[in-house]
Amino acid sequence: MMKITTIGAGAWGTALSNLLANKGYDVYIYDKNPIYQAINESHHNPLHFSEIELATTLHFVPSLQDAIADADVIIFSLPSKFYRQMAKDISDLLTKKVYLVSTAKGFDPLTFKRLSQVLREEISQEKRHEIVSLLGPSYAEEVIRRKLTCISASSTSLDDAQFIQHLFSGPEFRVYTNSDETGAEIAAALKNVIAIASGVLLGLGEEENAKAALVTRGIAEIMRFGMAFGARPETFLGLSGIGDLSLTCNSLKSRNCSLGYAIGKADSADVVLANNTMTVEGVYTSKYVHEIAKEKNIEMPITEAIYQVLFLNAKPSDISNRLMLRSLKSES
Q1: What does the pLDDT look like over 189-201, one tens digit per residue?
Q2: Alpha-carbon span 195 to 252, nearest angstrom
Q3: How far, CA to CA in Å, does 330 sit from each of 24, 119, 224, 326, 327?
Q4: Is 287 designated active site?
Q5: 172 and 232 in contact (C-beta within 8 Å)?
Q6: Which of 77, 92, 124, 233 shows the greatest Cβ crowding within 10 Å of its Cβ?
Q7: Rg value, the chain, Cα
Q8: Which of 96, 97, 113, 191 is catalytic?
């Protein structure tokens, strides 16, 4: 029997793990927080979806060594800032070649590298198959309630992407493959910045016209950035591109959009960020992208605006006005 281990018992890790457990696999979740022991005792996650009864083949394991032992598939479902150290810890424990699935949407905060690159650097090729990034428009709360969802498995190896595609796919969860790993990861990370901007607009009182314009210009901005790194333009029109962007810009279920909404309502980021306890990937992604765009001379006005709001104390209402009054230009 195949052993599947998920690193991280948060909302997304729980949803994906339960999906696989419902397909009949034995799935083990590791997390440093011992509160998740309740998964074994009551078949409920005490912090996420506590009303949902989890599959009996889903098990919490408090020891990383026990969780990794003899695993065939390891799913990384934790914030991007923890990827590198966790990959180092796991590498020392691996005793056979494993499939690695990355599900976070962001960059390494120290090196600004994509998360698949981080996993490659820390876990040698002898110990793993090619990295597969599972990305796309997917709220964990809908996946765990078995609502229809489509995402993509992106990898430089079609064989490995297809293995993960078949592992996860079912009546309510459809997975497509994508060989443009660079484009998929960049799109998934940068959409968080645009989602913050969408929330800011809503908080400022703007409505559907503004949101539609933001999504349209946002995907153009993401595409410019991605193509500078060799990504294919069609990737940004797919599930990990416009699909994920549309989802996160159109609902306050998104952490990034809801943070932006609070900032827009306050017309300031200071107090909101000081009291925020959630991991919001778009905050530090905006800082990274701002620096790289400036270095490579990539025009990214929306990202630049969000960077100024988050890190330079700019007022969202002033920035919004400044964006609208920029010099006029062709759309293309």
Answers
A1: 999 999 999 999 9
A2: 10
A3: 54, 41, 15, 12, 10
A4: no
A5: no
A6: 77
A7: 20
A8: 191
Q: Which of 21, 127, 120, 6 is nearest to 74 (CA)?
A: 6
Neighbours of 257 (CB within 10 A): 27
For residue 119, what are its two tokens?
A: 């996993």
Strands 73-76 and 58-61: unpaired
Q: Is the pTM of this model over 0.90?
A: yes
Nearest of 7, 16, 5 to residue 139 by alpha carbon: 16
Q: What is the mean pLDDT of residues 221-237?
A: 97
Number of CB atoms found within 10 A of residue 38's CB: 15
d(CA 50, CA 44): 6
Residue 153 CA to residue 136 CA, distance in Å, equals 9
Contact 44, 38 (CB under 8 A): yes
**β-sheet with 149-154: strand ranges across:** 58-61, 26-30, 3-7, 73-76, 99-102, 132-135, 149-154, 173-178
Residue 314, φ and ψ in degrees, nearest 5: -70, 145
